[in-house]
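SAMPLE LOG
Freezer: B-3
Tube label: C17
Construct: single chain, 233 aa
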Amino acid sequence: MFSLKNIFTDAMHLFYPHTCIGCGSDLLSKNEQVCIKCLRILPHTGFENIKNNSVERIFTGRVPIEDATAEFYFSKTQLIQHLIHQLKYKGNKEIGIYLGSILGKNILKSSYFKNIDYLIPLPLYPDKEYKRGYNQAEIICNGMASVLNIPLHTKNVIRQRFTATQTKKRRTERWQNVEGSFIVKNYEALEGKNILLVDDVITTGATLEACSQALSAVKDITINIATLAIASK
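STRUCTURE (predicted):
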């Protein structure tokens, strides 16, 4: 027997279909952003369970990092690129929260990343955040926080100058481009804290390294890093 609620739900689905961002299928619940079929093909790294993984090695000998991970391998023309593009350039915050929750769930099950005090989204330059309307790293953190129950720490780590896009720069150029870009306004607020620095995609790690260098000046701080994806070589 059909209820009025079911009829209303079916009508809403007809006029406002909720579809998978990956393939367009409508075979998913209202709380999901990606269908099961697309979710299965996302290239998970498993780095949250592996010490000395590819993300950790990026920072070896450069800045002290306790644990580091990336949830997916990033490749152009692949689904994960499309999803992150939706987050960064199409205003789709929901996919950022959804992917952040996946990252958070796997960190929660990991033997590492224990006793984290704060999630810190990698800051955007204020003008860039204003034009975009949000910081995509903060959206990812919101998804992670919904699973990890760890508070965000924002407005203290500041990106103090504009930097040109890193996309076509070599590693040395990337580092020179972001060197000295970040400051910590209140050191005392992070003294002795175990923090998780979060971004969307890591390539050479120059920007995360520059931010970690600024954070490492805080007394007795422990720095961990997590990103949605790591660029495939």
